[in-house]
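Render this sequence as a predicted structure.
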Amino acid sequence: MDWPREDRKDLQWRSASARPRILVLEVSASYKNSPASELESGKVSTSFDEALILKKKAQEVGPQLDGRCIYLVGMMGSGKTTVGKILAEELGYSFFDSDKLVEEVVGGTSVAQIFKQYSESFFRDNESEVLQKLSLTRQLVVATGGGAVIRPINWKYMKQGITVWLDVPLEALARRIAAVGTDSRPLLHGEPGDAYSKALLQLSTLFKERGEAYAYADARVSLPHIAAKLGLNDACDLTPNAIAIEVLVQIENFVKRDDDTSVARNS
């Protein structure tokens, strides 16, 4: 889904010699085991039964959303983009990756290069503007960057919709990231050692800084909890579709709680 024509004109990116600013957002738009790096690589395998469960749950939850956007938050490598695309397809929503939108705004520059050439603060400023623009529309699934939660203003924008935390064990995240490399992860550069140990160490540091912020989400999807329910020993054996089903279940639970609270407040 493209932005409306009038919005495209209003948000057009204009190059300037001064510090770049955001002025445009363009739309780029039974359970089986899967490889540990499946979420990170974007490869999705699923069983027929699982696909049917997902479709049925999306049909049940979709009308309850009333067009509200879904914002997926979580650590880098938690599968927000892969799961987000699945949710968008099943709900008939459009999908956005906030990191990709920032990259497009800054002339196609990668996140890693933005950090290097400008600064993390510059990236965060652009990220906030992206989220502000997204919050003005409806029927979107948005995969946010891992650090989007650290700025309170971003929560103001995301809380216009429903926020969901994909809570993945740090060891699983480190294995996924080590499998695909850290080149695109600017906050994981500079430490000596093997890829897994380096990723785990820095992920642990980042989680100490962000853990409380992630918990501010409207719903939490714990991969170890899903795995336990399905009789799996390792959360990495979960398929993205299995995670997407749980996201919908937790969104449904949140909507019900929210409705009950509203009724009690008004009674």
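Summary. The two ends are 40 Å apart (CA to CA). The longest helix spans residues 240-266.
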